[in-house]
Amino acid sequence: MTVVTEVVYLGLYFLYCCLESVFRICFPPRRKNIAGQNVLVTGAGHGIGREIAIELARLGGNLILWDINQSSNEATANIIRAFGGTASAYVCDVSKKDDIKRLAEQVRREVGDVDILVNNAGILNGDELLEIDDDDIQKTFDINTMAHFWTIKEFLPSMISKNKGHLVCVASMAGRFGVCYLVDYCASKFAVYGMMEALSEELRCTGKDGVKTTLVCPTVVDTGIIKIPKDRFNVGMLTAKDTADAAIDGVLRNKQVVIIPRVAELSICMSLLPRKFVSKLRDFAGIGLFPQYHSNVNVNRNPR
Length: 304
Hints:
Layout: H1 3-26, E1 38-42, H2 47-58, E2 62-67, H3 70-82, E3 86-91, H4 97-110, E4 116-119, H5 134-162, E5 165-170, H6 183-205, E6 211-218, E7 221-222, E8 229-231, E9 238-239, H7 240-252, E10 257-260, H8 275-285, E11 287-289
Parallel strand pairs: 1-2, 1-4, 2-3, 4-5, 5-6, 6-10, 7-9
Antiparallel strand pairs: 8-11
Helix pairs in contact: 2-3, 2-7, 4-5, 5-6
């Protein structure tokens, strides 16, 4: 095939992909059946993780719940068991690689291979970079980023051997755009975005396209980790339930990236605008957060 022929082919393929994308907006692919599959959710004790776990259990998944808080994790398991679902709860500190490796082996022994892995656990400091302790920055990356690597390395091999499975990582729109007072958080989520994009490409190039990946990018979610949100036009935060429902729908339709809410997809166009204008647009919208805990910054909490 000559270069000219290849260029023509690429042009035609581009048109095909555009038409397919429009078609899929109008007629989304059918949701797959996960009944009987083993689903592991980290950070399952509260917020988005709890809602994802409950809904996936309603869909027939056998839930494996990991959380550092034993009581809240057991509470999630009890909710699932109450409607006849299956749930196994494990106390896990995902900031510790050895804890992940030990519990992964225990899960394989007691439950079996994981078919769907949902990396959801995350933390947020929310302050000026120079006000955040070094250990807190390190912990942000250990939980928000490195834990994804360690869980994937534990559970991906069995998926590859079967050429079947699904890797899900809950990131954030803060993994696409920098946000004031979220320097460490944004960096950790940017890393997850890059990791999942590269891993998806690696699976494709190695012929393991039966293993699916989904990256979930919500805007601000009311899970309790953001104490003082900034919202000039009272748009409001997403609920954990609505976020989980949208994430699950994307996973079941094998979407590679799920942006929540859908209208936030328009923000991707901001990368094409002049940087100074984008900064002014952010000031006008007034969406973000104030310093969350111990910063001495004097802020106007009702900007206009």
